[in-house]
TrEMBL record:
Pfam families: HAAS. The keyword Transmembrane helix applies. The chain crosses the membrane at residues 80-102, 122-143, 184-201, 226-247, 259-278, 305-326. Keywords: Membrane, Transmembrane, Transmembrane helix. It comes from Sediminibacillus albus. This is Uncharacterized protein.
Length: 337
């Protein structure tokens, strides 16, 4: 698919279905009329640059031009919403769990999973997400109204104007090489989950039993003092994951440098958790006793299977993820989507 076809598609996808075909033919004819007989790629770039951003041109074709967030700031507005709404939901989750957790610590109790707790988390997440959406939208609506530049140039991430080279980049980057925003958000959510789970493992991770008030922990799985003795390196790993997420957000595609950063992080994290897993007093004695009773084996055997089984899985999946990252980074930029 060449740049002209991509440009026409980008314009028509913002238009009503009944107008798409006619406008596509008209626009394609207009572009070819702007080109010399022996045109080259540079001539195509100049023609598309003269026509301007596809969303602005689509807005000119449209009969209705009233909007709250216009094409100038639409993409930036949408990108920030996709980024901030998941963060708002995560923040609400941490807030609810954090308040409950601090109350339980003060009372010397463990965290109980109940329907009321889940309802509070869900309601708070929805509230914060709606608040974030309204707040960001109002800010961009104000920006749209007070922007004194009558240039119709939309602003992409970084407040840079549109350029035909953006289409070329979108055409040339293989789908598997690109990094979707959902992957970045999922990574951040996982960072929050395992971070909270690590530092409050004795409150969340263990064996539960079903009671009248919901699930209640019988015994924690880990000795929290052992886990907390590694807190500096664990905080560094959490920071590295956040830095990697920001790196992905800026680049939005895999590169050799990004894959190398990921490889270093993965090797250090796997090595760290293997060291933690092999600590003699990591697992709570009562936890091992209960598990060994279920399978009628010695607690030491249960511990051995858990330590080396988990370590093996971490090494295998870590190696696969490193291989996949370099595979994506080394994909040919000219491969078709």
């Amino acid at each position: 698919m060449n740049l002209i076809e991509v440009y026409v598609q980008e314009v028509t996808r913002w238009l009503p279905k009944k107008k798409k075909d006619d406008i596509a033919l008209e626009l394609e004819s207009t572009i070819y009329d702007m080109l010399p007989d022996d045109y080259d790629e540079k001539d195509v770039h100049l023609a598309l640059e003269e026509l301007g951003d596809p969303k602005v041109l689509a807005n000119k074709y449209s009969e209705k031009q009233t909007y709250l967030i216009g094409p100038k700031y639409y993409d930036l507005h949408l990108s920030i919403l996709k980024w901030i709404i998941p963060f708002a939901a995560i923040y609400s989750l941490i807030t609810i769990l954090g308040v409950n957790l601090l109350n339980l610590i003060n009372q010397g109790e463990r965290f109980d999973v109940s329907l009321s707790n889940m309802e509070d988390v869900l309601i708070n997440a929805i509230t914060w997400s709606i608040t974030a959406y309204v707040f960001v939208t109002v800010i961009f609506a104000i920006m749209e109204q007070v922007d004194g530049k009558n240039d119709d140039l939309p602003k992409w991430m970084g407040f840079t104007s549109w350029n035909p080279k953006k289409l070329e980049k979108e055409c040339s980057v293989p789908k598997k090489k690109s990094i979707p925003l959902s992957e970045i958000n999922a990574g951040l959510i996982w960072t929050v989950v395992w971070g909270v789970g690590y530092f409050y493992a004795d409150r969340f991770l263990g064996i539960y039993e079903n009671g009248q008030d919901g699930l209640r922990m019988v015994t924690p799985a880990f000795n929290q003092e052992v886990l907390l003795s590694f807190w500096p390196i664990v905080l560094l790993l959490l920071g590295a994951e956040i830095a990697l997420a920001i790196y992905k957000l800026v680049k939005r595609k895999w590169s050799t440098n990004m894959a190398a950063f990921f490889m270093i992080y993965k090797i250090v994290s796997v090595a760290t958790f293997i060291v933690i897993l092999t600590q003699p007093k990591l697992f709570a004695a009562e936890f091992l006793t209960l598990i060994s009773g279920w399978f009628d084996v010695a607690p030491s055997i249960v511990k051995g299977y858990m330590v080396w089984g988990t370590s093996t899985l971490m090494v295998v999946f870590g190696g696969i993820s490193i291989y996949e990252s370099f595979k994506k980074a080394n994909m040919n930029n000219r491969s078709m989507l």
